[in-house]
Amino acid sequence: MRRPGAISSLMSLKFPPRFKADAESHSLHLRQRLGLNARVACPAKLATGVHGILLAAAGALSDEIVDALVDEFPDHLKVRQHLKWVASDTTEFSAIVAIVNGYRMILYNGNNSPARQESDIMHELAHILCEHRGDCLQLNADISLRVHNACHEQEAKWLGAALQIPEKGIFDHVRAGRTSEEIAEIYGASLQMVNFRRNTLAIDRRISYLR
Questions:
Q1: According to the model, what pLDDT value does residue 136 have?
Q2: Which residues contact residue 81 at a Cβ distance below 8 angstroms, ignoring those fewer than 6 apart?
């Protein structure tokens, strides 16, 4: 689950060797599996489906899924209360990975904007791809909390952004003269996310060197 300031906080992060290059490879490989190129969007529903991950808006969970999730926790009443909380239109909840009967599932806030939902889901998918332990709902744990690992969050923020907007794709779009607003529409992303990728990847500076 992301925290406020998630995108801007990445500006000064340090990552393991080749992490950023591997993130780009993940993004391109995912698109290849779906027959997509780097210049088009890869909807979160398709991305999670490729990896066999269930996806559901917290407020639209079927009774069967809720019952299965509740069975993973000792305090059924508290779990149902928290599920109701994350489904409300006033919560700051974004998305989180849950384990339901052994299957991985991403629950997201369907009240957020479509662009925010895409970003939130890609962030959680990144946790799964990075095999981050503890970054999901835990057995015998309060459903509203999970283990927070700062390094894991940093990696998921970067990889999630790369999955949504590949470096090669945004480079080609900017080089072709498209605006950040146009690129955001292409990828179904927020303007903030596009500008983050554009700035941290030094896209404009790199293109200026080619002219």
A1: 56
A2: none
